[in-house]
Amino acid sequence: MYFASENFQTMLIRAAKVLMPAFLFLFTLLGLSSAVFANEPVLEVFDGVQSQYFKRSELLSNAATREILLARDAAYNKTMKVRAISIEALLPQVAKIESLQIVALDGFVANISGSVLAGQGQAYIAIEPADMPWPALKAASPASAGPFYLVWLTPEKASISNEQWPYQIAKIAVAATLQQRFPQLIPISTKSIELKAELRGLQVYISNCSVCHQLNSAGDANIGPDLNRPHSPVEYFQESYLRKLIRNPASVRSWKQSVMPGFNQQSISDAQLDALFAYFKLMAKERRD
């Protein structure tokens, strides 16, 4: 019996030596799979009541996802072919929603109405495939516009500006409008019939400036400086140079960390720029918390 037990123990030891590498390999694979799954990008969509979380792989395999051709992509400034899903597929009631926040990983926040998202511009969420990453946005950084990116199939039909193409999106959420949440953005004397230009300027500000800046310490984003506290740019810039700065920031000042884009006539017309300046000038007189 002693010799039989010794032989059995020896067989077990030999079997363990043979099988151990296979078990270690299996556990390694399981560990890697868990890590990959845990690190898979997820898009949060809040409909005003609850949040849904969509993994990249789920969106790519969704029946509503298709390949679309962007004639002029805003982030890369070229024609792009991407896999994308329509906003309506993620938020079926989007046309009835007054305002949505689209929050990017870097703190960029676009506030866009549901009617615009459901309108003629044809809004889609482009999805970056893990095995076919998009190009880097800047030569100095490997970061792309992915994993999720708001794109427009026909932006010219809805006057969509470049700031309404947020990329590296983390969350889409139903929210009250920016003015409702931050009333200090609204001129005090809004009932005056003389404020038409200023109120148009407020809309230009919301669409193009509020995605990165605050005004009167009010707003969602905080990438750039406040545009009214402690001073408004119309107070410390000559108007001609402020126009140059908005059209082409590098023509006025340039440094490696600068992230402000230029706004061409398609993004902000001269008339809209005039209205924006009128809004800034009024708000400089009405500076408040």
Offer a few descriptive terms.
alpha+beta; Sulfite Oxidase, Chain A, domain 2; Immunoglobulin-like; 2 domains; 5-stranded mixed beta sheet; 9 helices
Any overview of this molecule?
With 289 residues, the protein is α+β, with helices and mostly antiparallel strands. It has two domains: 42-175, Oxidoreductase, molybdopterin-binding domain (Sulfite Oxidase, Chain A, domain 2, Alpha-Beta Complex); 180-285, Cupredoxins -  blue copper proteins (Immunoglobulin-like). It has nine helices and nine strands. It has helices at 2-38, 56-61, 87-90, 114-117, 178-181, 196-209, 233-236, 239-247, 270-285; strands at 42-46, 51-55, 66-70, 80-86, 100-104, 109-112, 123-127, 148-152, 169-174. Mean pLDDT is 87; it is low at 1-6 and 18-37.
Task: Please sum up the structure shown.
By secondary structure, this protein is an alpha+beta fold. The chain contains 9 helices and 9 strands. The strands form 2 sheets. It has a 5-stranded mixed sheet. Strands 3-4-7-8 form a 4-stranded antiparallel sheet.
- Return the average pLDDT rounded to an integer: 87
What order do the helices and strands follow?
Answer: HEEHEEHEEHEEEHHHHH
The DSSP helix count reads 9
The CATH class assignment of the largest domain is: Alpha Beta
Number of strands: 9
